[in-house]
Write a structure and sequence with these properties.
Layout (H helix, E strand, L loop, with lengths): L3 H7 L2 H11 L5 H7 L8 H11 L3 E5 L7 H13 L3 E6 L2 H15 L4 E4 L4 E2 L5 E5 H10 L7 E6 L12 H9 L5 E6 L5 H12 L2 E5 L7 E7 L2 E4 L1 E4 L6 E4 L1 H22 L15 H10 L5 E4 L3 H13 L7 H14 L5 H6 L2 H9 L2 E4 L5 H12 L5 E4 L13 E4 L3 E3 L4 E3 L2 H8 L11 E6 L6 H9 L13 H11 L1 H8 L3 H30 L7 H35 L5 E5 L6 E7 L12 E4 L4 E3 L13 E2 L11 H14 L21 H12 L8 H28 L2 H16 L2 E2 L2 E2 L1 H6 L7 H10 L7 H9 L20 H22 L13 H9 L3 H6 L5 H21 L5 H13 L11
Parallel strand pairs: 1-7, 1-8, 2-5, 2-6, 3-5, 6-7, 9-19, 13-15, 13-16, 14-15, 16-19
Antiparallel strand pairs: 3-4, 9-10, 11-12, 17-18, 20-21, 20-24, 21-22, 22-23, 25-26
Length: 923
């Protein structure tokens, strides 16, 4: 048999040239030239996108992680350079920007490529500039001259527009970038790429939509049970009937686990002592790594949804004596690490745990998470890409775009802590994580391994692996900064029109079309139902209306009784205290639980206690979980250092809960309030009498007519709900914009179509608490502060604690700093009231959790002293300081020329930009 390779070897040079000409016949000169930069043939989807670009269209490319989407972005760079124009390459995170900058510099040289992030400004007027998306948004609002000559904007990881915190920035850029600029949008595989493409065509003109769902490296799914590796799917049937099914061995194990759980339950609740069933223990992490190594599945990324878990996993591997590298590889690793850390002071290295970090790296083992020093994370990424690191224990942030493909991805758990409760992984998140498996050009296949454990259903894992529903939904909403910038540029009415071009409104409008069509069909059906209900004795719809009023009144009385019980339940929840043991009466969370946080004031609908259940799950409850009042059945002492994020803490407290509370303690008597009989209600009595007097009441077909009338009223209710939904979705973005403008008008930032001086100041502040920052500047809250005091105060506008709400109040500097922080909180309270009056909610309360740390660092204290007084990791500290530096820079720019605040902000920046904060991969 002749293989393609042997066939090409026997062909003449003329035949091979003829084949090449046929393949490239549709390629323009720029694409032909571009292809010579690569030592591999471009895939069909890459060629299709590049041809569209060369023909003058914009493009949206949606393809799996690792498929080579960035080649299309690089072709836009090539087109810009060959045409003497500019290309901006935007990314969602600074690490990606740094990585892409290094790639483009190695190809085109440093004189043609620039970098603009919050941390670095390198050659910003170059023809190709890599930047974070926020930098481009700020340029557009400022009317930067750097935009001159811009021909292409590459938006890498454009699916970030679904991010509820930052997603609006992507839509702002797409809407506001000049019409002459072509957008190159690169997205992960999403299930509504065509819809997103239609929106791009509506706002940007000709845009080609290229969707490719083919993984360049096939992915195989497995489950690790103990140290045995099972395929998740097995193929059954033959020929055309061949199909993949969940491995029956895994299904049998799941059934056995249910049986064991029932035995455990019987042993706890039964009178006779049953034999203790064997308890499944998940494999130790070093054992998992060794099993993967034996199977030839390294390098691997092991996703653990906890920073502490990642660090612990590395230590476990070290203590187990695991070594995955040769002597030569260890020496190469040490040389690279020493070169990359040469500029870090020895004292700082000691504080950062450098020795343990290097020891693990030399063995081919590393952690990767947001709590690490950025330089350390970059070292891990560089060594992993070079094949020197064999296993990385990482949080899910690694899946967000950094180019670190592996042969295998391991997922330890199928749920994660979202900051408040344990939530299941979504199919989209699972796809994003496993997308890292399989290195193109290196691996023949990639592997995804889920570690099996109790309550892990193989069918559910198969559902996650097989689901391709990953919709891209807009998170866009107008902000105060956006409003003043838009109004200043185009006026209120034109701004409203522009905002109605957002993807959020586009999605809402598409839904409205379907809803309006359904309303029309319902109205036709209603006419038919009314005709079918006609009676020869009289107006049956009038009679039916009386029956409806009677039914509504009876339901109203029932609701009043239920409301009284709910109110009683809410009052009982308000009396709960940490340590109270309660019984949750029904639902998925039913059973005993201990209160960790009463949750007072968290929600408008009443208390929302945070509890730990006997199953070690942390859940946020609500009044809806308690149909009647709840009373504590016992009290527990919660340890002082208890953290709901710590699995061991949860395990210990749940064990204490089970041991202390007797099985029958939660069988509480339920008081029943005396319900007022409906017959005692005057209105009900009158309606019943009126029904009996109506001529239709004696019709022998009354109940048949009534069934048609009931259908009429049921459909009428549904139709009215649809009408309200149509009304609510129409112009939803514009209505929010009007409310934002009303707030700004009330506070003096806008005067009709005119942006005031205070409004222009607000337009220079790009921060979640933009309006509060501007109010602090206007009120002179910071005028009398020194640079360290200002740093402490401004930190409250960027920092968000990971601590629970009931944590000990953070330490803050005394004196004028404390007075200024108190004034900031008062200002926030006043703004919160204004927002409520205008039915918007954008501003969170200032967080004082970083104030003392920022103050000490700005004063010049050493890293070890500063970190000793905080729970922050080095990475969290550096990130918080950089966010603070960014806002201080904005404040300095927004403050009046030669003002005290402007000078103080710049002194604070100079004082804080030192040591670990300045270490960067880009000079």
């Amino acid at each position: 048999m002749t293989t393609p390779d042997t066939q090409s070897a026997t062909e003449s040079p003329a035949a091979r040239y003829s084949q090449f000409r046929r393949r490239t016949a549709d390629n323009g000169p720029a694409l032909l030239d571009f292809q010579t930069l690569y030592d591999f043939d471009l895939d069909p989807f890459q060629l299709e996108a590049c041809r569209a670009l060369e023909s003058g269209s914009g493009v949206l490319v949606a393809a799996p992680t690792g498929s080579g989407k960035t080649v299309v972005g690089e072709f836009a760079v090539h087109l810009a350079l060959t045409g003497g124009r500019k290309c901006f390459y935007t990314t969602p995170i600074k690490a990606l920007s740094n990585q892409k900058y290094a790639d483009l510099v190695s190809r085109y040289g440093p004189e043609k490529v620039g970098l603009l992030t919050g941390d670095n400004s390198v050659n910003g007027e170059a023809p190709v500039v890599v930047m974070t998306t926020e930098v481009l948004r700020n340029m557009l609002y400022a009317g930067s001259p750097t935009l001159s000559g811009l021909a292409f904007v590459v938006m890498d990881e454009v699916h970030y527009l679904a991010d509820r915190f930052r997603g609006a920035v992507w839509e702002e850029v797409i809407i506001h970038v000049p019409d002459s600029v072509r957008i190159v949008a690169l997205s992960a595989t999403v299930s509504n790429a065509e819809e997103f493409g239609e929106w791009l065509q509506a706002v940007r003109g000709d845009t080609a939509v290229i969707v490719d769902e083919h993984r360049p490296v096939p992915l195989f799914q497995h489950m690790l049970v103990g140290t045995r590796l099972y395929d998740l799917f097995v193929e059954v049937g033959k020929g055309a009937n061949r199909q993949a099914r969940v491995n029956p061995q895994l299904q049998r194990m799941a059934v056995e686990e249910v049986r064991r759980a029932k035995l455990n339950q019987n042993r706890r609740t039964g009178r006779r002592r049953a034999p203790r069933p064997t308890r499944f223990r998940p494999p130790a992490r070093p054992d998992v790594v060794e099993r993967l190594d034996r199977a030839g599945l390294l390098p691997a990324i092991n996703f653990i949804f906890s920073r502490n878990g990642c660090d612990t996993a590395v230590l476990q591997c070290l203590h187990a004596g695991l070594r995955l590298t040769s002597k030569e590889e260890s020496e190469e690793i040490r040389a690279h690490v020493e070169l990359r850390t040469a500029d870090i002071a020895p004292d700082d290295l000691a504080v950062l745990g450098y020795d343990d970090f290097l020891s693990a790296l030399e063995r081919g083992i590393a952690a990767h998470h947001a709590g690490m020093l950025p330089t350390f994370k970059e070292i891990v990424e560089e060594l992993f890409v070079r094949g020197l690191i064999k296993v990385v224990f990482a949080t899910e942030t690694l899946a967000l775009g950094i180019n670190m493909p592996a042969r295998t991805v391991v997922i330890e758990r199928l749920d994660k802590w979202n900051g408040e409760a344990h939530v299941d992984l979504t199919p989209g998140e699972y796809t994003q994580l496993t997308g890292r498996a399989g290195r193109r050009g290196i691996d023949v296949e990639g592997h995804a391994v889920v570690v099996w454990g109790p309550n892990v259903d193989p069918g559910s894992v198969a559902g996650l692996a097989g689901t391709r529903t990953y919709p891209l939904n807009s998170s866009f909403r107008p902000s105060y900064n956006m409003a003043v910038n838009l109004v200043g540029a185009v006026g209120v009415e034109r701004a409203r029109t522009l905002l109605e071009e957002s993807f959020a409104q586009f999605q809402a409008d598409r839904a409205v079309v379907g809803l309006a069509r359904q309303v029309h069909r319902n109205e036709e059906a209603l006419a038919g139902y009314a005709q079918a209900a006609e009676c020869h004795l009289g107006d049956f719809m009038e009679y039916a209306a009386l029956r409806r009023r009677l039914s509504d009144r009876e339901a109203e009385l029932a609701r009043e009784r239920s409301s009284a019980r709910r109110a009683e339940a809410a009052r009982s929840l308000e009396r709960l205290r940490p340590g109270d043991v309660i019984h949750v009466p029904s639902g998925r969370r039913s059973g005993l639980a201990v209160v960790l946080d009463p949750g007072l004031g968290r929600r408008s609908d009443g208390p929302a206690p945070l509890v730990l259940t006997v199953n070690r799950s942390v859940q946020r409850l609500s009044v809806q979980d308690f149909p009647r009042a709840v009373e504590p059945v016992e009290r527990l002492r919660i340890p002082k250092g208890f953290s709901p994020r710590n699995p061991q803490d949860r395990r210990d407290l749940a064990a204490t809960l089970r041991n202390k509370v007797a099985d029958d303690a939660h069988e509480r008597r339920r008081g029943r309030g005396r319900d007022v009989p409906a017959a005692d209600d005057r209105e009900i009595a009158e309606l019943r009498a009126e029904l009996r007097r109506h001529p239709v009441h004696g019709c022998d077909k009354r109940e048949e007519h009534a069934r048609w009338a009931e259908r009429y009223y049921r459909l009428e209710r549904e139709t009215e709900q649809l009408r309200r939904r149509v009304e609510g979705r129409s112009q939803v973005i514009a209505r929010t914009f009007d409310r934002v403008c009303a707030v700004l008008q009330q506070l003096g930032y806008l005067d009709g179509d005119t942006v005031t001086d205070e409004g222009r100041r607000l337009g220079r502040i790009y921060n979640e608490l933009d309006l509060l920052t501007a109010e602090c500047l206007r009120a002179g809250v910071w005028e009398r502060l020194g640079h360290a005091e200002l740093a402490a105060c401004v930190s409250a506008l960027v920092y968000e604690s990971r601590q629970p709400d009931d944590a000990t109040p953070p330490r803050t500097p005394t004196g004028e700093t404390q007075d200024a922080l108190a004034a900031m909180v008062r200002l926030w309270g006043e703004l919160d009231a204004v927002e409520k009056d205008n039915r918007v909610s954008f501003l969170r309360e200032p967080d004082l959790g970083f104030a003392w740390t920022a103050y000490r660092w700005a004063q010049g204290h050493d890293l070890d002293e500063v970190l000793l007084e905080t729970d922050l990791t080095a990475g969290d500290f550096v990130r918080a300081v950089k966010q603070l530096l960014d806002l201080l820079g904005q404040i300095a720019d927004a403050a009046p020329e030669n003002s005290h605040i402007r000078k103080t902000a710049r002194r604070a920046m100079d004082a804080m930009r030192r040591g670990v904060v300045t270490y960067s991969s880009v000079a």
